[in-house]
Structure formats: structure tokens, C-alpha cells
Amino acid sequence: MSIIKKGELTKEDLMPQYTFLGKEKDLESHVLDNIHDIAKYCKWGVIKRIERQYMLKLASGHVIADIMLWHEDGTGTLIECKTGKNNRNDLIGAIGQVLFYGATFKALLGNMPRLVIAAPELKPELQATIQGFSLPIELILIDGSRCIHLS
């Protein structure tokens, strides 16, 4: 998988080169197949443990992170994969989801994980909202054999 960093991007780089046809679980699998390369180029640190569909129980139910990583340096990364197929609200809703999950994981695990939304298409509204409010969320565009780190 080729990784492109934000500072190296052109407008053409953000144009999808691939149409994702799978389901969310297929996107998760694709991310997991390339997770060590993604973590290296996003500078998240060496991965010590990987969990898919990682569940934390709450008094009123539970939360499930699509992908949870623990790194050798003691940090964690919570990745929510969204296909964005239904409408832009799926991706906009992901903002609230990862912020809630992050706060929940911090309270239960003792530290705030890095929050990441991974999707095959990232709408400008999503990027503008995250940047405009300085939200602690990283975006990665998963576009076939490319991964573009936008944070």
C-alpha cells in the first residue's frame, strides 16, 4: 500500500482512483491487512496488540471500536471504518462516534487513544468540521492501494 502524507498532496491526489464496493467489514479487513504500514507512515508507533471489533462494557450497554491498536510506547489508536455509502451523515456521524468512544476508552482504559476515521471517500464537510473545531481526529483515506493520511 502506498502512503501519501498531507503535506505532499495535490487536488488530484484527493480524487478517488477506486470505487469501494464492499461492506464496512471489508474495509476493516483492508485496513488490517495494511495496518503496520499505515501505523508506520502515520507515525503512530510500533503496534504491540491489535483487536478487531473491540468491545468495552458500560453500565448502560457497550461500545465497539472497529479496530483498536495498542502501541509499544503506551499509546493507543481507535479506528472507525466508514464506507460512507449511504450518505454524508454516515461520515459526519462518525465524528460524534469517535469522540464518544475516545472519552469512554479514556475513562475505562486510563488514557485517551488516538482517534481515527478511515473511509474510501472523505467529504470536504468532514474535513472542514474537524479542522474548524480543532477536533482530535485523524482522517485516513483508503483508496484501493493508496492510503492518504489527512491529519
Write the layout of secondary structure elements.
Elements: E1 2-5, H1 24-33, H2 35-41, E2 47-58, E3 61-71, E4 76-81, H3 88-109, E5 114-119, H4 124-132, E6 137-143, E7 146-149
Parallel strand pairs: 1-7, 4-5, 5-6
Antiparallel strand pairs: 2-3, 3-4, 6-7
Key features?
7-stranded mixed beta sheet, alpha/beta, globular, Trna Endonuclease, Chain: A, domain 1, 4 helices, 151 residues, 33% strand
Describe this structure in words.
This protein is 32% helix and 33% strand. It is α/β, with parallel strands linked by helices. A hairpin with a 2-residue loop joins strand 6 (137-143) and strand 7 (146-149). Helix 3 (88-109) packs across helix 4. The longest helix is centred in the middle third of the chain and has 22 residues, at 88-109. It starts with a strand and ends with a strand.
Q: What is the CATH topology classification name? A: Trna Endonuclease, Chain: A, domain 1
Percent of residues in helices = 25-40%
Given the helix and strand composition, which structural class is it? alpha/beta
Distance between the termini: 18 Å
In N-to-C order, the SSE pattern is: EHHEEEHEHEE
Estimate nothing, just give the exact number of structural domains. 1
Shape: globular
Q: What's the overall average pLDDT, rounded?
A: 84
Largest sheet: 7 strands, mixed
